[in-house]
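Task: sequence design from structure.
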């Protein structure tokens, strides 16, 4: 009974609401009639419509159309396409003499190992300091902190992720980046051995900006030994090699002008940057290397040489081998301190030792054979010296007799002159 009453109440409520809306609801307004000669209003977001041209009277030429209004003029800038890698990648370069690892983040060097030179642990010598942080080898710097920060963190797009280099033909590895405003490109051409060619370009808003290729801080992971100076800056200026220890550099750095090459050298290895066309400008500056948990930061040297867009900058990273560096040219062999006086003797002897080693294949036997060869060359002089010594030994008794005869004669006595005459006659 109660359910039936509820249904009747709901039905009556719906009937009353429907009737009220029909009798007292708002009525639809009819559309306003258009006045002849007027147009419908155009919404504010619509594009203005250009009015049609006036009809042309027969026998007259049409009037030229008025130019459309243009917004305030802005400096035009060529659009630079965006070139960015999707992920951070490791790029490997393998050759017989070296192996290099890059990160496409900043196109920076992570590792540079020399296969022919082994450390005390028997591993290839590492040329990149393990404690490098803010600066890494082959970074590009423009002097603008904002641009340099973008270049250090940019994800460059590499031409390949693995590159194998052999003696037959050079191979090229390229890195490219563009965010629409800053564009940078770094191209490295490798050979099996020798110098590496680096071409770098940096542009901001389509305009080239000065850039500098750097190496550092320091070189390698050579252990600190008491009395041994750590890696330092080195440059060839006006034909003379100048060295700049890290402790002697001012915080603002040392500017270099008309430099033939510049870089960082250690006790046995060096990283040198050489302008391929004449001289260039560069700079050396100190950088603090973070220490271990119980060590304090130590100063190191960062070297930089200006790059010319499109012009290669040559790079040498390897051992301070006087003979090998001499074959490369550019005066690179001067980085080896052979000495001004003893150098003319040491260099030929080292070349002779290398020649003997090429014949016997063992450094120990090469040294023995070279020693025998030197003794054979010096034999006539040694024989002459021994013969003179034997003659002097025979004269010793007679000389003692003369000296004993004049022993009691004072030094200022004229008879001493007589003793000298007798000894001269004996000789």
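Answer:
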């Amino acid at each position: 009974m109660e359910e039936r009453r509820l249904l009747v109440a709901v039905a009556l409520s719906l009937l009353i609401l429907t009737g009220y809306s029909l009798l007292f609801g708002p009525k639809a307004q009819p559309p306003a009639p258009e006045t002849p000669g007027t147009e419908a209003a155009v919404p504010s977001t619509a594009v203005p419509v250009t009015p049609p041209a006036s009809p042309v009277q027969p026998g007259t030429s049409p009037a030229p159309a008025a130019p459309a209004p243009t917004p305030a003029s802005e400096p035009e800038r060529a659009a630079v396409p965006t070139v960015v890698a999707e992920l951070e990648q490791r790029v490997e370069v393998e050759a017989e003499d070296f192996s290099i690892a890059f990160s496409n983040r900043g196109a920076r060097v992570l590792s540079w190992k020399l296969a022919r030179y082994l450390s005390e642990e028997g591993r290839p010598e590492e040329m990149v300091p393990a404690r490098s942080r803010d600066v890494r080898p082959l970074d590009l710097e423009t002097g603008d902190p904002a641009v340099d920060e973008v270049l250090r963190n940019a994800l460059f797009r590499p031409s390949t992720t693995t590159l194998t280099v052999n003696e037959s033909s050079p191979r090229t590895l390229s890195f490219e980046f563009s965010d629409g405003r800053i564009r940078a490109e770094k191209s490295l051409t490798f050979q099996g051995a020798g110098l590496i060619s680096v071409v770098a370009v940096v542009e901001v808003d389509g305009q080239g900006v000065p850039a500098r290729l750097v190496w550092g801080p320091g070189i390698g992971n050579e252990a600190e030994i008491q009395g041994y100076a750590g890696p330092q800056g080195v440059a060839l200026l006006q034909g003379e090699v100048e060295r700049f220890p890290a402790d002697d550099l001012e915080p603002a750095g040392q500017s270099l002008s008309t430099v033939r090459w510049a870089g960082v050298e250690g006790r046995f290895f060096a990283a040198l940057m050489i302008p391929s066309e004449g001289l260039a400008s560069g700079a050396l500056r100190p950088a603090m290397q973070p220490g271990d948990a119980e060590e304090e930061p130590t100063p190191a040297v960062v070297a930089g040489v200006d790059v010319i867009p499109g012009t290669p900058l040559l790079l040498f990273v390897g051992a301070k081998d006087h003979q090998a560096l001499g074959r490369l040219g550019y005066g690179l062999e001067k980085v080896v301190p052979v000495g001004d006086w003893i150098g003319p003797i040491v260099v030929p002897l080292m070349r002779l030792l290398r020649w003997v080693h090429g014949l016997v294949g063992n450094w120990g036997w090469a040294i023995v054979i070279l020693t025998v060869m030197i003794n054979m060359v010096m034999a006539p002089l040694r024989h002459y010296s021994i013969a003179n010594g034997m003659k002097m030994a025979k004269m010793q008794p007679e000389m003692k007799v003369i000296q004993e005869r004049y022993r009691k004669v004072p030094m200022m006595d004229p008879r001493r002159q007589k003793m000298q005459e007798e000894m001269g006659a004996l000789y």
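Residues 28-75 have pLDDT under 50 and may be disordered.
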